[in-house]
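step 4 of 6: structure.
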Amino acid sequence: MDKYEILNTYFGYDSFRHGQEQIVDAILLGKDALGIMPTGAGKSLCFQVPAMVMDGITIVISPLVSLMKDQVSTLVAAGVPAAFLNSSLTERQYLKALDFAAGGKYKIIYVAPERLLTWRFQNFVEKVNIAMVAVDEAHCVSQWGQDFRPSYLDITQFVNGLKVRPIITAFTATATTRVKDDIVKMLNLNSPIQVVTGFDRKNLYYEVRKKQSKKIELMNIVREHKNESGIVYCTTRKKVEEVCQMLKEEGFKATRYHAGLEAEERKENQEKFIYDEINIMVATNAFGMGIDKSDVRFVVHFNMPKDIESYYQEAGRAGRDGESAQCILLYSGNDVSTNKFLIENSRQNGGNELTDEKVKQQMIAQDLRRLEQIIFYCQTTECLRTYVLRYFGEDVKEGCGNCFNCYEKITEKERKKRIIASLDGKLLNELKKVRMKLSMAQGVPAFVVFSDASLYDMCRKLPKNDEEFLEISGVGYKKLQQYGSAFLEVINKTKP
Ligand code: ADP
Ligand code: MG
């Protein structure tokens, strides 16, 4: 099958997104590639599609067990022969998986970097043909980043030990030059094609609210998003506890996540959120790196974060499926003083080996400058998206039309023109119910069955038969086979 057939048959999409095709083409010509794209841009497809076109196996290196599990579930649901090898498997399961892999059962194998140099894994790779090594979250190889993983340094040694050098590709959402240069160097990429897509996320709506009561505002927001997944970020653990408690008392399904909880509880709460048992996650910035949940419809910042970088990353966890999502920051003057306090104290008391007072003061000054930039963000009456993109060095023209400040400026008439006929709520609800039922029966998160984007598309297109069902974004042959009749039945029954 060629790349378009794979895209269509397995993943159920009719076209590549910006940047994807360029990378796929380069890989299919045998070139190394480096993809730098924002969260939600669709980096996975960049290596998954060529992996299916090429002969041989693709090894995907990924830092977190939870990420691997969800990504492999998504692939398997789409009919792609894939598996993961990590510490969540028992010894027996691991040996069995390796055995299957050696027998050519899988096209794509996700592996934790710690496994690469073990003799068992080495023994396996000797027996097979490896077409590509794809390094996901490649910034983990850089010591400049916050997420440095020493085991990522084993990747090059692993590659060097292979009989034939495979294609090497790397993907990240971190765009700083230092990290980028590090990735090319540390992974030994061979004149890779580099694709850097813009950082704009058009489907995200931005707003800053400066209201008397943050709690009332938060309540209004979660009420508007009944039964939809959302994250509420707070600066401190104490605030997380307080806000989570309040939401629960008001009858919302909320859970919490911060570094002060036992690992066991963190994992449990995260799973409840991913599996839609609970729809609101209240968390500190410790939450997020390990999740790929594509249907997060809102991210509220109960407190202003310390800089635009953090804000953009956290807010960016909304709407990865490309459907609209809201990013709302609740701002108050207190946030400024809390952040100032945190900046001054984290640099002064421990946690930092720097002893030189002058350097320390310089770093504090830099953090304070960044803080100032996000305070400006909270206070500007100009387009919020433009502000952020310019901060990241992108040249954009004023006025996105999808942030609060832009909405304020456009006239009522224009506003009406932009409003797309709203979706049928009843059908959507019914579709979500079947999705939930199927996902529970199979023990996978709901978004593995279908993303929100697919459900919305069903509401828009109202497919009547298999053929029309295949036209839905995200429906490939395997999903048609597995889920088609269940969803078609609901659509036929509930159709407006
Ligand atoms: P990233 O790793 O860049 O954060 P993902 O690979 O997780 O992003 O993809 C985000 C979402 O976009 C997923 O739900 C994926 O199915 C969807 N997606 C990716 N490529 C396409 C495409 N060409 N058309 C439609 N949806 C896509
Ligand atoms: Mg990804």
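step 5 of 6: annotate
 - The longest strand covers residues 130-135.
 - The CA atoms of residues 214 and 220 lie 10 Å apart.
step 6 of 6: archive
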